[in-house]
Amino acid sequence: MAGQIGVTPRSTEQITVTVHVADQLLRAGVISHLGRAGLRVLESPGRATGSGPDLSDTVAVVVSDRLDELTQAELRRLVRGGRRPVVFVAAQLREPELVKVLECGVQSIVWRHQATPERLAQAVRTAARGDGDLPPDLLSQLLSVVGRAQRTGSPAGPALYLAPREVSVLRLVADGLETRQIAEQLAYSERTVKNVLHGIMSRMQLTNRAHAVAYALREGYL
Predict the structure, then answer these.
(1) Which of 173, 15, 176 is nearest to 84 (CA)?
(2) Residue 85 in contact with residue 127, Cβ under 8 Å?
(3) Same topology for domains 3-140 and 155-218, yes or no?
(4) I want to staple 117 with a disulfide (CB 3.0 to 4.6 A). Which of 33, 67, 77, 145 is the partner?
(5) What residue segments make up the domains of the chain, in order of their start?
(6) Could you report the per-residue pLDDT of 35-71, keeping only the tens digit for each?
(7) pLDDT in tens, 78-119
(8) How far is residue 179's CA from residue 135's CA, in Å, rounded to a whole number?
(9) What number does CATH give the domain 3-140?
(10) Which Gene3D superfamilies match (predicted)?
(11) Selection from 216, 214, 191 nearest residue 8 by Cα
């Protein structure tokens, strides 16, 4: 099962998707995949600016073979400018690139060779409801990166305090549980879980759940 990450809750009804890829033939293929899965694709998304259409309720799908500077800038623009979830479809990601993608605020990552219509639709719907996911191998890679950082010299104590309830929620996030499953485990409402995570990320200036888990690991909470 993919590891679950994400941030802001939003409705999964009437999901609209924008597709961002330089190769027009590949773009047509991605649009076809999403259409076959029953998702509505906005053909001309434009840029997320004040003068353009309101794209705050859309999910952006970005496809790139590798994370170059242009792709990284596009990911940041879509997440921060449009304040919306992003699904990144990549052919490959090295460890430093994975960290950069997550720091951009990307909701979900899908390997290009696994990007079937069903897999893409799953990632889009997961992102739209405020969660996200990483392929298992990437989640393992992320935890390895943080583990090495700890072994080579992490801070002596937490830079910012995490309450026991926050640690409990983050521990379950690290185990790959979704919001609903975390709520059931801790006997909280889903709104409480989302509020706890939002509070952590706002206070620590973190971009998403994976970033929050990495912070908690680095600071010795998990």
Answers:
(1) 15
(2) yes
(3) no
(4) 33
(5) 3-140, 155-218
(6) 888 898 987 655 444 444 556 678 999 999 889 999 9
(7) 887 656 789 999 999 888 888 788 778 787 899 999 999 999
(8) 18
(9) 3.40.50.2300
(10) 3.40.50.2300
(11) 191
Return the DSSP state at 159: S
Strand partners, 59: 17
Distance between CA atoms of residues 125 and 108, nearest Å: 10
CA dihedral angle for residue 157, residue 159, residue 161, residue 166, rounded to 10 degrees: -100
First to last CA, the chain: 21
Question: Which tokens is 95 given?
Answer: 């460890």
Q: How far apart are CA 91 and CA 101, in angstroms?
A: 13
State which amino acid sits at residue 131.
D
CA 25, chain centre distance (Å)? 26
How many angstroms separate the CA atoms of 182 and 189, rounded?
9
155-218 has which fold? Arc Repressor Mutant, subunit A (1.10.10)
Q: Which among 59, 86, 91 has a CA at the least distance from the CA of 75?
A: 86
Predicted TM-score (pTM) of the model is 0.65
Lowest mean pLDDT among 5-9, 62-66, 129-133: 5-9
SS3 64: strand
Alpha-carbon gap, residue 163 to 199, rounded angstroms: 11
Place of tokens 């879980």: 193
pLDDT band at 7 (very low <50, low <70, confident <90, very high): very low
**The pair of three-digit structure tokens given for residue 14, joined into one six-digit string:** 């009437």
